[in-house]
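We were asked to recover a plausible sequence for a given structure. The inputs and outputs are reproduced exactly as logged, with field labels preserved.

PROBLEM: sequence recovery
POSITIONS: 461
GIVEN STRUCTURE:
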């Protein structure tokens, strides 16, 4: 392994990456997930969130007095014109709130504050599109369209009926509604979901003579109903498929990380994109591919479709301009080596396939077959960010962790070693004292990102 060669990619062009919502150049330079460094201690909250799949559509006719007045579709308010500002919520994996806040701040967004598993901010419509394109850590970008106190399921119906959905979609679009709740006193979330859907469909049928069909698989429009103890919020989902789906992953390997969690780990680890990065349990290559995109300034959404493209009045020319601008800023060279290895040849084949689909040439990330216990870096010290195997099999293999730790202590002096694991006893298995433990969820798994500084003293002792 060497870091002396400049690294090239198959990607597109020359300049530094751009930022969303028109911040100045200085803000742009601070933009990427990995540079979102101001990561403080994160809060862990364990409120239950119950997400329900929408039930089969069942129409309940509303009372006549609840009907909104008929309005001709031609008088729809145009969206996003003249600086209309939207209240936005971007959910993220739990534990990445601070990092997402820092990312959105660096992107130039205003009105930021952290919420449970996400961040609130304000943006004009262009800013909403750019948040989808540029955020590496968000899972979705949700625009708040209605918010009110609710005491009964019928209040949800009324709220949905008085929300001007016709600005965004109509009978020509298909629809999906999802509901989640924290501490909501409502009896049945399925019924709440149905009430929201009925309210939306009734309004559109009254205004436009027909209602959208429900499509739970590939809907054109998605609405999220969020309930808490006293209120309901209706969000328009502008992302469509979750934002961690960048479009390059076909090959999954064993227990792959979601792409936005991988980017979040790099942010929590405070990886410097000009320094080497190793992942000795790289699996399908998620951490290193995310790292390459961060270092090159490839916007994570550059090659995928978004939900907003299928909404009414989508300005495809404006969107194309935003993407053109983003593409023109992608760098062509990496400053430092990105090196992955895995004991399983199938994982390495998957990583290579993913690298290719991520439009990265073979010299951007070096993937090799190898046992982490025997890998010796031959570049200057940098970062290890890795997601080793977990589960009963590993807990029973008592020799594995001391052997890997021995390699770290002997051959990684000066490296910052960041390990995500659901095994909260990992530091004692490694006999290493972590400098920090970041609580973070990998899906439903309560994990820690353990940060170890490999200093010479540790090896001597
Ligand atoms: C949890 S998975 C990593 C998934 C990866 N982060 C991704 O997103 O695809 C753990 C990986 O460790 C690999 N592995 C298990 N034992 C190993 C060893 N001794 N040396 C290197 N890799 C090993 C497995 O093959 C597996 O791909």
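RECOVERED SEQUENCE:
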């Amino acid at each position: 392994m060497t870091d002396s060669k400049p690294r090239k990619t198959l990607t597109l062009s020359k300049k530094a990456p751009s930022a969303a919502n028109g911040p100045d150049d200085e803000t742009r330079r601070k933009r990427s997930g990995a540079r979102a460094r101001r990561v403080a201690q994160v809060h862990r909250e364990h409120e239950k969130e119950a997400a329900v799949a929408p039930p089969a559509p069942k129409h309940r006719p509303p009372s006549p007095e609840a009907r909104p007045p008929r309005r001709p579709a031609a008088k729809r308010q145009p969206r996003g014109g003249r600086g209309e500002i939207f209240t936005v919520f971007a959910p993220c994996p739990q534990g990445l709130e601070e990092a997402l806040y820092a990312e959105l701040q660096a992107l130039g967004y205003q009105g930021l504050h952290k919420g449970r598993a996400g961040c609130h901010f304000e943006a004009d419509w262009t800013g909403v599109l750019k948040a989808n394109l540029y955020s590496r850590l968000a899972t979705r970008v949700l625009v708040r369209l209605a918010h009110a106190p609710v005491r009964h399921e019928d209040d949800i119906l009324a709220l949905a009926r008085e929300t001007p959905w016709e600005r965004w979609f109509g009978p020509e679009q298909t629809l999906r509604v999802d509901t989640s709740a924290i501490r909501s006193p409502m009896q049945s979330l399925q019924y709440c979901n149905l009430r929201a859907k009925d309210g939306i469909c009734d309004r559109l049928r009254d205004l436009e003579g027909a209602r959208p069909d429900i499509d739970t698989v590939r809907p054109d429009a998605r609405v999220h109903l969020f309930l808490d103890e006293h209120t309901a919020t209706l969000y328009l989902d502008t992302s469509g498929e979750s934002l961690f789906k960048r479009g390059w992953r076909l090959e999954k390997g064993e227990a792959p990380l979601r792409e936005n969690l991988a980017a979040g780990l790099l942010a929590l680890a405070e990886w410097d994109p000009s320094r080497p990065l190793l992942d000795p349990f790289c699996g399908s290559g998620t951490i290193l591919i995310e790292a390459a995109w961060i270092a090159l300034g490839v916007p994570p959404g550059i090659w995928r479709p978004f939900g907003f493209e299928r909404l009414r009045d989508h300005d495809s020319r404006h969107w194309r301009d935003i993407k053109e601008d983003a593409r023109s800023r992608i760098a062509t060279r990496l400053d430092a080596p990105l090196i992955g290895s895995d004991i399983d040849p199938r994982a390495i084949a998957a990583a290579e396939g993913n690298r290719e689909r991520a439009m990265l040439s073979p010299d951007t990330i070096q993937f090799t077959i190898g046992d982490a216990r025997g890998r010796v870096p031959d570049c200057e010290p940098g970062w290890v960010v890795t997601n080793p195997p977990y589960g009963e099999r590993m807990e029973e293999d008592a020799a594995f962790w001391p052997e890997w730790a021995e390699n770290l202590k002997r051959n990684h002096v000066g490296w910052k070693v960041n390990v995500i694991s659901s095994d909260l006893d990992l530091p004692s298995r490694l006999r290493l004292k972590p400098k920090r433990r970041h609580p973070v969820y990998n899906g439903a798994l309560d994990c820690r990102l353990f940060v170890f500084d490999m200093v010479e003293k540790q090896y001597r002792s």
